[in-house]
Amino acid sequence: MQFFSLFTTYRELLSELTWREIKQRYKQSILGYAWVILNPLIQMLVMAFVFSKILRVESLGVPYAVFLYVGLLPWNFFSGALAGATGSLVANAGLITKIYFPREVFVLSAILAKVVDLFLALSVLVVFLIYYHISLSWHIVWVVPIFGIQLIFTYGLSLFLAAANLLYRDIQYVLGLGLIVWMYLTPVIYPTEMFPDRYRWIFQINPMAVFINAYRQVILAAGEPNYMSLGIAAVVSTSVLMLGYWFFKKLEGVFADVV
């Protein structure tokens, strides 16, 4: 698999496409990159009011705003990266027909642009942790491998969807609906303890549920993640990457003919 060669052989192209994606998104915008912070912040404030003040969702001993934001950050990254990567080949149709290089560069650059957004949005979480006097433990280092596994899962699924969307443009619309359902089946706005016991098996087959629970465990609960669940998620993510890459490369030869 040529995944790591993209960062060496095509690092300049990858960097250029990533920054182009970021710049185009906020071109001719008054607030510019501030929207990266404002969007999740406003989303969190509205959802926090509805689910903590009106619906009274439990937050397991921490302020609901912080509980929610720790779930929203990885979910917004995942959904945004998936949506951007799915349309990346269509958006770069002109380059696909003119010059050859590994087409997965387009997919990866769309994801990396969302990684930049994620790091900027993290500043809000830092402010909330300080404001609510939530101390962190050494378990915070687990965020790195958890995010690494999530990134693998996101990239693998993005490869599959980007290739499929180039052939069938309905994929981008189906994805929008699918992400809405997926979010409500993931403990983003509620703790897993609120979900009926007979349906909790859904979380075991949902990698995003594993990731979000793991983030909350190491950041808010100052504990270790569930090793078995995280291990299964790592195996699933690796499998998704391998299948997504195989599917992408299998169709790559016809990309120029269908754009």
Average the pLDDT over all residues and give the rounded result.
Answer: 87
The termini sit apart by 25 Å
Specify the number of helices.
12
* Total number of domains: 1
Order of helices and strands: HHHHHHHHHHHH
How many extended strands?
0
Q: What would you call the structural class?
A: mainly alpha
Report the uncertain regions. Answer: none
Give the % helix: over 70%
What is Rg? 19 Å
Shape: globular
The amount of beta strand, in percent, is under 5%
Features:
259 residues, mainly alpha, 12 helices, 0% strand
Secondary-structure map:
Elements: H1 11-25, H2 34-54, H3 64-86, H4 88-91, H5 93-98, H6 104-131, H7 143-167, H8 170-184, H9 201-204, H10 207-219, H11 227-251, H12 255-258
Characterization of the model:
The structure is a single chain. By secondary structure, the chain is an all-alpha fold. The protein has one domain. Helices cover 71% and strands 0% of the residues. Helix 3 (64-86) packs antiparallel against helix 10.
In short:
This protein is mostly helical. 71% of the residues lie in helices and 0% in strands.
